């Protein structure tokens, strides 16, 4: 099966003890895969004492009161990694990489929840859209990939990312008409007419909904949502964020065949990052941690759009 990834993918290298916002302190329940668990038991690591079976039935690492992983050392390194000569469970070894499986290819990327990945994508390397999937044997997915590529080219060329975000929404709405009338072959007739972004009142209502109706990992996240202030970030950061969101979430319309709503969701996350009371890149990391890594939260926030 072919695999695609944006060309910043290979730039990542974990900051380990020097990480300013370690994933080991994010408060995530990290499932330990069976093979790693058996390995830890076999080499005599105290894994049973330091893990438990969570509500989903997975064995996960214990967390301390400050939400850090029980194996995180004072120096910011993983004690389990040190004790076993470098053996990490599957999820820890992959993070911050993510993989999206489609019918005839896999797409990989880096999560913006990691500060090193976020810096590479938003501020250093930027987002290149060339090395991503553009074709599929599946008719609807092929339509999505073709139009994702067009949308990303438009965002890249547009000098003002807020205007590109409005055009993305209009594009999604017009494409949706083709989907509804089964006229996928007419995609090239659809241009980039801007649609109205979310108003300040709509964004405030969305923030209140997220604060009250989703599972909140970090109490600071709820405070940020309820306070709400604008920290827009630079045009380059905003453009790279919009490109990233389009890359990651546009093809997810495959599940619902609702491109208009999927573009609405992208616009919502884009505007959310600019409406929180912390620096733009910090807001982006929070959004990725709280919504991007939690399937239930993703569903709830996507449900705001309908
Ligand atoms: S957040 Fe990223 S850089 Fe920091 S410890 Fe985790 S993987 Fe490494």
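Q: What amino acid sequence fits the structure above?
A:
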């Amino acid at each position: 099966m072919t695999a695609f990834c944006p060309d910043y993918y290979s730039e990542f290298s974990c900051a380990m003890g020097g990480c300013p916002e370690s994933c080991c302190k994010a408060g995530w329940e990290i499932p330990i895969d069976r093979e790693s668990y058996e390995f830890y038991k076999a080499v005599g690591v105290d894994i049973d004492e330091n893990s438990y079976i969570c509500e989903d039935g997975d064995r996960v690492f214990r967390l301390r009161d400050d939400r850090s992983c029980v194996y995180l050392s004072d120096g910011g390194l993983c004690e389990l990694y040190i004790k076993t000569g470098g053996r990490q469970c599957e999820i820890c070894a992959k993070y911050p990489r993510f993989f999206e499986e489609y019918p005839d290819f896999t797409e990989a990327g880096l999560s913006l929840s990691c500060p090193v990945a976020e810096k590479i994508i938003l501020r250093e390397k930027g987002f290149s859209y060339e090395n991503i999937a553009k074709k599929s044997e599946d008719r609807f997915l092929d339509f999505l990939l073709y139009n994702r590529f067009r949308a990303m080219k438009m965002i890249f060329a547009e000098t003002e990312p807020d205007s590109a975000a409005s055009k993305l929404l209009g594009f999604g709405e017009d494409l949706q008409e083709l989907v509804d009338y089964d006229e996928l072959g007419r995609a090239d007739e659809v241009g980039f007419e801007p649609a109205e972004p979310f108003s300040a009142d709509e964004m405030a209502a969305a923030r209140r909904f997220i604060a009250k109706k989703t599972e909140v990992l970090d109490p600071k996240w709820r405070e940020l949502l309820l306070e709400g202030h604008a920290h827009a970030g630079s045009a380059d950061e905003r453009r790279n964020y919009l490109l990233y969101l389009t890359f990651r979430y546009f093809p997810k319309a495959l599940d619902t065949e609702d491109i208009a709503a999927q573009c609405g969701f992208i616009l919502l996350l884009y505007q959310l990052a600019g409406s929180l009371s912390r620096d733009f890149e910090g807001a982006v990391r929070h959004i990725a941690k709280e919504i991007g890594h939690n399937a239930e939260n993703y569903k709830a926030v996507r449900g705001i759009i309908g």
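Q: And what stands out in the fold?
A: Residues 14-15, 19, 22-23, 95-96, 114-116 surround iron/sulfur cluster (CB under 6 Å).
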